[in-house]
Amino acid sequence: MILLFGAGLMFRTIARMQSLALGFRADGVVAGSVVLPMSRYADSSDKRLVVDRMLARVAATSGVRSVALVFPLPFGNSWRFPVLVEGAAPDEEAAPRAMVFTASPGYFETMDVRLRAGRTFLPKDDHASPLVVVISESLARRVAPGGNAIGRRIRVRVPYLASFDDVDERPWRTVVGVVTDTEKEFAANPPPDVYVPYAQNPWSNHALIVRTDRPEATMFEPVKRALSAVDPALALSNVESMTDVIAEQGASGED
Description:
Blueprint: H1 2-19, E1 29-35, H2 44-59, E2 64-71, E3 81-85, E4 97-103, H3 107-111, E5 115-118, E6 132-136, H4 137-143, E7 153-156, E8 173-179, E9 193-197, E10 205-212, H5 220-230, E11 236-241, H6 242-253
Parallel strand pairs: 4-9, 6-8
Antiparallel strand pairs: 1-10, 1-11, 2-4, 2-10, 3-4, 3-7, 5-8, 6-9, 7-8
Helix pairs in contact: 1-6, 2-5
């Protein structure tokens, strides 16, 4: 009975998933968690270097079409933060709230998140370059009602940068791209999206995402080996298909 009940929940979740406009393509994507040990990668420059090596090594793995990092993984949490727009009243209570992601170049292409205006992240969007941001369509309409959000500047608190808790300490980031809205949770009104480049906000926790033409489960071990070849301390955990990640989240919400 327990097995039948669990199977019923999973089937209902998959049907629900298929009826949603996810804003990205989950099939063919493998996701897993990787943490950079602070004892080995304490400096931002060390994090950037090893991430570049990780992505290059995984990209060279047979069966991998594209690879990227993101934090947090969609359907991984429900953080929402106020987005302050240059020229608008600095009122956090009235400001639109969005989910904030850190992503490497290639994230939007790997997840098949459609670009609507401007551009996505490039390797040049690094620590030495002006701070940039990509936002989703619903937020773009709030940032520039009836106009073009490209070139506008916003302030947002990146979740894990405690030094930017104070509004006045948060840097202005220029909008360079607008992408389609994505589903991050099974909610009636999901929040809009804000993406900041990984190289401008290096962090130790990541979700590694890989797009493949092969059955997702066949890529689990090759991707783990690719990371280990860069550094044996880089362990990939919680590896599963993105479809399963979403289905499990939906099933837990129906318990």
